[in-house]
Amino acid sequence: MSTAAQVSQHSWAALDHLDRLEAEAIHILREVAAQCSRPVLLFSGGKDSMVVLHLARKAFHPQSLPFPLMHVDTGHNFPEVVEFRDKIVAQWGVQLIVRSVEESIRQGRAQVKSATDSRNALQAVTLVDAIHEFGFDACLGGARRDEEKARAKERIFSFRDEFGGWDPKNQRPELWDLYNARVNPGENMRVFPISNWTETDVWEYISRESIPLPTLYFAHRRAVVVRGAQLVPISPLTSARTGETVEERWVRFRTVGDMTCTCPVPSQAQSLAEILRETVTSELTERGATRTDDQTSEASMELRKKQGYF
User: Which of 2, 66, 159, 224 matches a 20 to 30 Å C-alpha distance to 167?
Assistant: First the structure.
């Protein structure tokens, strides 16, 4: 082994767990910038997309990001998260593209049964339309393998066809840290730099790097109803059903999707240390505990991914 290789191997061995995850993610981000002609970072303002944005700023510092951010706005986002998103974009001086599911509905590109239905699945239509509009050949996202079984099957560089569809049987090998981002016109890659991270890793990194987050992630008082095993937040889009009692409880959100399908968990954790303690002892994944639209086979993550979802 050469002296340079020995030094490199020693340097890697000296890194702690978070340093290794960070180094891998930064390598992936730089591979995307090197191999792809028009990448974009999918950004919602949630904790995972904030971690990916923070990593991207580190990866290309002191230069500005070599790609824009894009948010597919369903119109059902928590207002606190949208406000936080706009604040970060202004403070950090990054370019944000917003495309709206509401506009897709107006154009007849997507259909809803009622105004309060979950629009999560409809994001695929808006996203694929935006990919074609801007000619994006790679979409960077904050998905992680520990979130859900379909995401656990997906590669870091996930090939998507011209319709945005994912075929779990048509995956490219990823040997060591070699990634193949080649696509034909109309096709694209979905790339997940923190795919190998866990929810605990994310919170530890947020704490170490002092990454700002929306207030919803921290314990607060909120009106909810108990519905099965979940606490459903009361909002302009979600109301109590006949026989349900509205209560005000201490809760926090582990994930911040749409108001129509995202539930908080009971919590009084108001600091990162307290959230970390809750996270390491939780027996449920964040999506399993908080997403009502992941509970049926018709709305399964794998089916949505085959239809173009993130």
Answer: 66
